[in-house]
Amino acid sequence: MKKLVFLIIVLISATSYAQDMSAGFTYLETGKYSEAQEFFANILESYPTNKTARLCYGRALGLNGHTVEAKELFTKLQADYPTDFEVSLNVAESLLWNKDYEDAKTMYVNLVQQDSTSFPATLGYANTLSNLKEYDNALLYVNKALEILPGNANAMVSRKYMKLGKAAQVLVFQDYETAIALLKQNLQDFPNDNDSTMSLANVYVTSQDFEKANEVYNSLENPVAGLIGQSLVAHLMQKDKNALELATKATGLAQNDSIKMMDSQERYVQALIWNGKYKQARTHIDSLTAQLGSNSRMVALSASLSMYTGKTNKGIDYYKTILAKDSTSFTGNLGIANAYRGQGNLSKAYEYAQKTLSYYPEQKDAKALIATIDNTLTPSVNTTAAYTRDNGDNEAYGASINTTIPFSDRFTTSLNYSYRTTENMTQGNMANNTNIVLGAKYRIKNNTWIENTVGFTKADADTNSYTDVNGSIFLKTQPFALQNLEIGYSRELQNFNAALIDEKIFLNNYMLNYNMGTTFNLGWYTGLMHTQQTDGNSRNLLFTSLYYTFTKSPALKGGINYQYLSYAEQIPEQYFSPSKYQAVEAFLDLNGTAGKWSYNANVAGGYQFVENDDATTLLRAEGRATYSLSPRLQLGAYGKYSNIASATAAGFEFTEVGISLRLLVGKGKLFQF
């Protein structure tokens, strides 16, 4: 459009000045705007009122980056020539240069009304609408411009970018079909166009049509860009080893492509992180920073590495650095939102997720994060029902309902009601117990919580009925990256069977649990418990587990467990209470999701040693599956079996099956951040 307006100026200036200004016209036509600016400034010293010189000088100013001065000049020119159509065209274009799109729209509407056959007016109006993201009308008018001048290169390029903008706009609302159609139209006009091809691949990635995304990446003329895209697709398909192979290949090819070198190096570092090669990633980031200097992309890689290695606070600092340079950064805003969520600071996470949406309306990941936070803080009801049977011929039925009400992101209350009835089918003795417990959780700072419950237990047995208090208090924290510490006390009734309920034995448990993770997939969990019982007995329990995470999705880990249990007094006629019990087992644990299903399975086998008796085998297994009927309602079922002696008060093997239901109550959280 710039060239066309310029040609019009040349035509209307075919006067005695044309010979004198021909050099200036050439400067403008060939993009030498500084020379044109100087040239026409000299002309205006001799001919200050010459309209053509003033127009050309204004255009040289605007195209040379001095858009405000150009706008002022054209406004003064319009005052001298208020009805001149060509002057008005330049005024309108100067408004576009200054991003005064609404004012430009008003001017172009008048210009198009004056002359609907004017190509520069029609194209200028289309471009103005495009800048206002009014893509439907923009496409309507750019097509009208192409009817006036079929095949015009400027108009064709403008239409390409309008379709790119419209495709991006509908993609936000997950209208994949429309986005794909628009981008394919572009590729008909501009075969192998890089912008349209890359956008088409992005649509396929976003819609999780990974096969077609790979086809598009394979078709790219630049093999480095194709490999970078394919690496991302491999990661999304949970093929991280393949992602690293593709990224490595891209870096090799990019050595001769300075433009793609940074992109390939960035993907390579990301692939290292995806594969848990954190030391290599850190070394590579440092090397790139030394070569290229620190920039937002390097900082973003450091932030991502910090999040993967559990250094959330460090990740937050990196994201703050990005936002200090660009407060609208998508990576910075959504990244710090996720980091604050990982830190346990949900109010900050919510704030930055909302900021992300303010800059990127309807952004899918930001909306998903907000929905996750809202669901976490929405009042909920959880119910379970279970049936248990052991080889001592005890049968038990139990049910519970737990209501959780968050009053803020820091304070949550709960109310739990449970009922359990048990009967020995051989001896005929029966008992039941009811628990009502009020709970509260308070976040002291970040992921440090104090949790407390208090309530009562009412028990009815054949010879003994009573009511007593129960409760607990725990401090839960993350003292270091990838580490969790839990210290607390709990009081509970020993209610495994009717005989034990009749004995009215309460357990006062003092516990310490510690889990230490690492960046190389090895973990170590240790639990210590000392119990003082109301019957005068006491118990010590040690459980420790060394485990390794084999895969992340689904998460598969396995390892070795060791357990040691001892009682001060042995009362085998009432409950399993050895002076020494040990167990060693190997285990596998699997959990993951598949569509609306989530699942968990655990199996372990080994040997157990009671007192100085010979070893006996032990086996335990547990499985659970949950189906999301809706985002607010989940239904689950589980089953478990164990013959590990310390798992029951009587040292018997047992089987349990149950169902669960979780419902979010109300429209959302009860408070505003």
UniProtKB/TrEMBL annotation:
Organism field: Nonlabens dokdonensis
Classification via PROSITE patterns: TPR
This protein's record includes keyword 4Fe-4S: no
UniProtKB keywords: Repeat, Signal, TPR repeat
InterPro entries xrefs: CellSynth/LPSAsmb/PSIAsmb (IPR051012), TPR-like_helical_dom_sf (IPR011990), TPR_rpt (IPR019734)
Keyword Signal: yes
Residue intervals passing through the bilayer: none
Protein name: Uncharacterized protein
Pfam family membership, one: TPR_19
Repeat positions for TPR: 17-50
Signal peptide: 1-18
